[in-house]
Amino acid sequence: MDPLMFILDLGVLYSIYAILAISVEIEYGELGIPNFAKSAMYAIGAFSVGALATRLGVWLTGVAWEGEFKSTSWIYATMVSERIASSPMLGVVVFVVPLIVAMPLAALLGLLASYPALRLREDYLGITLIAFSELVRVFVRNYEPLLGGTFGAGVPNFLAFLPVQLRSIALFLLSVAFLAGIWVAYYRLTTSPFGRVLRAIRDNEVAAQSLGRDIVKIRAKVLTLGSVLAAIAGVLYAFYVGSVNPDDFTVMKTFIVILMVVIGGKGNPLGPLVGAGIYIALDRTITFAKQLISLPFDINYFSYIIFGLLLILVVMVRPGGLVPERPPVTVRER
């Protein structure tokens, strides 16, 4: 593979995972709520692309859809890409509309998921949110008219109007721009009075409530915000991969993102960036290593063993993560 293409590919994937990690950091690192339905919110973004992008492109080009979605979506996705090659505005619409649909939909689901988070202890909360996440995935997997079921759905290339050698660069720049904007907004939140309220609730909920803070309202806001960020990552992922399959969004995705946050460091704005970078680097290294080693068990489980050992090591040696939490600039002694 061309080294430049490899770097661009890693950059896009890193940006997606870093956005996901930031969404978990806001909920878990700042507020202290472990959102085990994260994969569902991530999936909402991708599902919106899979369900809308090709259909919207076909409708805008005036072509009548023939046949079942599950058996023809890949064909029509290719046709829409060809039309985008001569119509840049069509590519913009195909990207923007699913994004606009995914964000409020994820916000609504995040608000619904916040209700058990307001009333249940952490152990019951975790079980409830995992069940909620699987419910979303299983429904989409079995309702074929929406996303093609186990066949998945093809996604048109919204950058097809660019020369082939520039498409990867454009997607890289777009993903990095989303990450930069989201991280800056997150950093400003952590150093704001609202960020201090979140940490106060995390550290001592009773004390925060005694000072007049509406715990229920704040938790609902944060889970809604985190869900919207996860949906943005899902939209980018769908266009990056070029297809959407419900089986790509299992609960394991949630645990992977939480792993990034724990390794990077909860409560530190740099934690999600560091954690996502370490995960991507190790994942690619393990992928190459799988081709060179022989093990007495399924090689596909090798990465789970490595990441599990890494998590145990970090928790034992550096419980605060590689980049531990520090007092925000606004309250640190100068």
From TrEMBL:
Places the protein is found: Cell membrane
Keyword Chaperone recorded: no
GO molecular function, a single term: branched-chain amino acid transmembrane transporter activity
Keyword Transmembrane: yes
Transmembrane segments: 6-28, 40-65, 85-112, 124-140, 169-189, 222-242, 254-280, 301-318
Keywords: Cell membrane, Membrane, Transmembrane, Transmembrane helix
Domain of life: Archaea
Pfam families noted in UniProt: BPD_transp_2
UniProt membrane topology term: Multi-pass membrane protein
GO cellular component: plasma membrane
InterPro entries on file: ABC_transp_permease (IPR001851), LivM-like (IPR043428)
PANTHER family per record: BRANCHED-CHAIN AMINO ACID TRANSPORT PERMEASE PROTEIN LIVM-RELATED, HIGH-AFFINITY BRANCHED-CHAIN AMINO ACID TRANSPORT SYSTEM PERMEASE
Protein known as: Branched-chain amino acid ABC transporter permease
Organism annotation: Infirmifilum lucidum
